[in-house]
Every structure is written in structure tokens, then in C-alpha cells.
Amino acid sequence: MGNSSRKHAEDDGEGEEKKDHEKAEGEEEAEEEEKEEIVEDEDLPLGVDDLLASGDPVLDLSYYKFRRLPGQVLYLQYLEKLYVCGNRLRDIPKGIVRLQGLRTMALDFNNLDDVPLSVCQLTNLTCLYLGSNRLMSLPAEMRNLQSLRCLWVESNYFQHFPKQLYDLPHLRSLQMGDNRLRTLPSDLWRMDALRGLWLYGNRFQEFPRVLLKMEQLEILDMDRNRISEFPNLHHLPALRLFSYDHNPVKEPPRVGEEVLIVGEGAEEVLQARERRKGAKERAEKEAEEAAAAAAAAANPIIHGILKKLRMSSALNLAGAKEKETNGTVPSTEQDGYGSQGAELERQGVAHDESELGYEEEGLEYEREELICEGEGYDEYGRAVLEYERGGMDYEYEDEEQEEYAQEGGA
């Protein structure tokens, strides 16, 4: 029992020593990390102090040749966009996780061999730029970036498509140009949120057939590969831009009329498309005009009503002018015969007035008929009617002048 008690005591002592040792190691690591994170103000390039103190939610520290991210940045919790492109960074301090307000982070043109795990804890990121580094793969922790919509990893060393991206439900734009991809996984269609895919400058010798299943794609860039033949891309109804330049193809790929294509022979295709579009528009216009003419010819009742209205208006105008003419004849210049002729003229005027009243009643009847049959006419139809009445009045004046000239000659 004594030996057993001593053994337990020794074990307990060793356990406590181990815990103390681990605690000490953890504290040392934390101190080292804190030292690594802090860069003294005197070491900062000219003007950086002002940027850090500006309070601007957008901070651009690109091309300052930093080997470590300035520690002051890790406490700017109001930051929304952080650009540290074109430096010499190999890692990002863990303290970056304090900046949970970051939406955009640009780490292009650095010396990253792996995606910093601290970056994968920035769960509110929507845009992440990692181009022109030394990446060959993505960590499993990339799945944490559930808000990510745009990822650029161009100009790296990917030989296989990173399937970790399948778990990013909102990823719409993926830039993987200038890598070493030869194929794509057959279940890539699972990325149904993807709208833009850039695969230029890779090593594809055949068009990846799985892309034909991604009907939601709007932009597809396959420039600078080794593809000698493209399939019919009418299977991609949402496609709006397809680039195939610098591939050994004999003719442009077949695409929908709405797709802009970029590559050899594309200009001729686009010009022919414009000619077809112009011819179609002209044919549609001619068809509309023919339909309008046919509709007008199919409504003779309306034309008959308009004609009667013009005739009635002409009679009204004739009566009014006749009154004015009779009223200007001086009574003192007429002899007995002239008085008798004047009496006959007055009787004729009265007779004409009675006829005019009859015609006015006919006019009112025709107007009521027009209202009954022309219900639903819009303002445009009424404007046309007024215009035609005016044209009739003008024609009638000419006819009156000719009649008076003939009467004078007689």
C-alpha cells in the first residue's frame, strides 16, 4: 500500500508539473505571437501612421513591402475592407480574428504558401483575394467562410480543383485562371450559386463536359488553354460572355444570340448577328404597319361617319357665309324689281335656314351614332377627328369660292 501511495503521489506530482509546463509553454507562445504582431511605430513607413489613425473603414497598406502585418491593424475593429497586396507576407497573425467586421480582404502578390487559418475565422468575409501567391490547395477551414461570394486564387499552383468550395453556398464568382488544372470534378454542378468562372491559362485539352450542366453560368472564360473543339453552348441559357481566345480552334463555338464571344472569328459572327437582327427588326416593323392598315380597312363604318360629319360641317359653314353675303347688300340701291328680287332672296334664305336646321338635326343624330359606335376611343382618336374636320373646312372654302365665281359669271 505504501508503494502504491507513493506511486500515486508521484503521478499527481508529474501531472501538475506537466500542466504547469504546458501553461508556461502556452504563455510563452502567446508572448511570442504578441511580439510578432507588434511592429514599433518607428518601423512603419512614412504616412502609414496617418492611415492607421484615420478611422476610415477602408485601409490600404498595399506595396509597402511588409514582412509582417503591423500590429496596430489588429485593433481596428471598425475596418470593413483591408488591402495588403504586394507585400512579403508569409502569414497573418491570429489577432486578425478580432476584425469580425471585415467584408473584403486582399492578400494578392504576397508569399503565402497556405491560406492563413486565422483568415478562415473571419466568417463575415464576402470577398477574398489570394491571387499570385504560392498556394497549391485550400484548407478544410475554408468551409467556415459561409458568407463568401467572391474568391480569387488566380496565378497559384493548383493542380486539382479544391472541393472545399462545394460547401460555400453563396459563392458566385470564382477566379482560378493561370493555375495547372487539367480537369474538373464531375460533380462541379453542385456549385449551383456560381455565376462567373474564370479558367483561363490552365492546361485543359478538352472542354470540361460538366460545365454543360451548369446552366446558371453567366460568364465563362477558357482563354489560353489547349482546347481544339468546343461543344454547342446553347445548353447554357444564362450565358452572356464566353471567351475562348488563344485556343487551337478552327471555328467559333455555337452560342445563343445574346452571348458576347471573344476569340478568333468572333468579330465575323457578331457582325452577321447584327445583320440578322436588323433584318428581323425591319420585318417586324413592316408587319406592324401592314396590320395597322388592315385594321383601318376593316372599319368602314368609322370612315362613313367621319365623311358624314365633314359634309354636315360643310353645310353649316355654307349657311353662315350665305347669311353674311345677303346681309351686306344695301337696300337703297335696289329698284322695284330689285325689291322683289330681295324678297325672293329672303324667302330663299328662310328656306335654306330650314334646310340647315334639318341638316343640323341630322348632324346631331350622326354625332350620337358616332358616340354610340365609337365608345372607347382614346384621345388620339379624337385628335385625328378634329384634324380631319379642319381639313374638310379648308377644302370647302375653295369650293365656295368657285361657286361664287360661277354665279358672278352667270
UniProtKB/TrEMBL annotation:
Region feature Disordered, mapped onto this chain: 1-41
Domain of life: Eukaryota
All residue ranges annotated as the Disease resistance R13L4/SHOC-2-like LRR domain in the record: 72-175
A Pfam family annotated for this UniProt entry: LRR_14
Record GO cellular component, one term: cytoplasm
PROSITE patterns (UniProt xref): LRR
Matching Gene3D superfamilies: Ribonuclease Inhibitor
Biased composition (Acidic residues): 25-41
Keywords: Leucine-rich repeat, Repeat
Protein name: Leucine-rich repeat-containing protein 10B
Source organism per UniProt: Triplophysa rosa (Cave loach)
